[in-house]
Amino acid sequence: MDLPEEAISDQVLLERTANSFYHYKDFCLQEIWKPRILKWKSLSTYQKQLIPWYEDYLNNIRDCIESNSIFYMNLLEKCVGIWGLGSDPNKWATPNNVDMGKTVSILNQIAREWSADCSEERDRFLALLKDFLDSKFPHDRRDVKVLVPGAGLARLAVDIARMGFSTEANEVSYHMIMVGQFIMDSGLQKDQVGIYPFVHSFSHHLNRREQLRRVNIPDINISEELGGKGLLSMVTGSFPDLYGPNTNIKQSDSYSNSAYIREIRARNRSTKDLVVTNFFIDTASNVLDYLETISHVLKDGGYWINFGPFMYHFEQDPQTEITADFNPYTGEVSNMFVTPLKGLELSHEDILSVASTKFPFKIIHEQSHISSGYGTNKMDISMQGYQCSFWILQKSCDKVNNNI
C-alpha cells in the first residue's frame, strides 16, 4: 500500500533523525576530533614538549564521544521498533548537517532537563510556577488540564504532572521526541546513564576536567514518580497546527490545511485550563500565530504562564516559506505569498500590549530581567546566559473571541 505524501515526509524525517543518532560518532570524530589531532601532529617537536599531555587529552575527547555514541545506540535499539523504522540504517534517509548539529546539541538539552547539574536553571521558573499553582489550584488538580507546547524532552511537563495536574506535552522536533521518549519510557533508574554534553565545545573552560565532565541522568526515577497515574500524555506536531483556530493564521510549513487537521483544531478549542510556555515563544517565525493559538486553546478564565528570553530563532534565517489564506470550511487556498521566516520579532512589552488589548487577556503578573542559563556548564567562564521574562495572563471571560 502506498503511503500518503504527508506520511512519506514524516517517515523521511524520522529516518533522518534516527540516522543522525547512528552517525553521531563518525560525525564528531570527523568534525571535532580529527582536526585537533591533525593540529597536534602539525606542531614542532619543541611545541609538543610544551604540552606533553595534549595527545592524551584528545584521546579522552574521543572516549567521551564514543560513550555518547553508546547512549545513542541504546536509544536506537529501543526506538527503532516503536517508530516503525527498518532495521538496516543503510536504508534510512541521509541526515543533513542540521540534523547532525541537533544530535550534538541535544546532549546539552538532556543535561539541562534531566540532570541534577542543571536543577538550579530549571528551578528559576519552576519555583515561580509552583507558587502560582499552589495558590490557585490547591485541590482537585487531576481535573485541571495543562498544555506545555515546545515541551522539548518533557521535563517541565513531567514536573507539572508530578504536582498532580493532567498534563499534555506537545513537541514538533523528532530529535526531542525520540530522546525524550527513550529517557521516560526505558525504566531508567536515577543517575543510571552518563553522558558527556560539554565535550563538543572547546571554549570558555576553566580547566579540561570541566569539558570532560560526566553528567548523570535522569536525576529522578521517572517510573516511580509517574507510573500508573495517567497524568502525562505527549502529542507530536506543530503547536499552531494542532491547537490553533481555523481563522486568522495563514497556511504555512507549520500550519496545514487538511480537513482532518481543521477538525482537530476545532475540537481543541477551549479545552485547557493552563498553557505553560518555557523558552518557547521566541521559537516562532510569527509570534502572533502563537498568541492566536494560546487564546484559542484556553478556556475562559484560563491562564497563560510564560518564562523565557526573546532570542528569536529565525532572526538571522535567510530562508522563506509559502504562506496562503484558506477557507476554514472548504480549504480553498488564495493569496499565496513567499514569506521570509524572519521579520516579526516582538519585544516583551509588544507582546503584553497586543495580548491585553487585541486578545482576550488581562495581565495578572509580569516580571523581567530574571537571569538563567540553558544547559550550560556551570563552570563555564564565558558568562553566557539569558535575561528572562515571566508573566501570568488570564483569558478574560468578558472579551469576545470568535475564532473557530
From TrEMBL:
Pfam families on file: CARME
Leader sequence segment: none
Gene3D superfamilies: Vaccinia Virus protein VP39
Source species: Kluyveromyces marxianus (strain DMKU3-1042 / BCC 29191 / NBRC 104275) (Yeast)
Keywords: Methyltransferase, S-adenosyl-L-methionine, Transferase
EC number from the UniProt entry: 2.1.1.22
Top-rank lineage group of the source organism: Eukaryota
Family designation: Belongs to the carnosine N-methyltransferase family.
Annotated protein name in UniProt: carnosine N-methyltransferase
Any one GO molecular function term: carnosine N-methyltransferase activity
UniProt enzyme class: transferase
One example of a Gene Ontology biological process annotation: methylation
InterPro entries given in the database record: CARME, SAM-dependent_MTases_sf
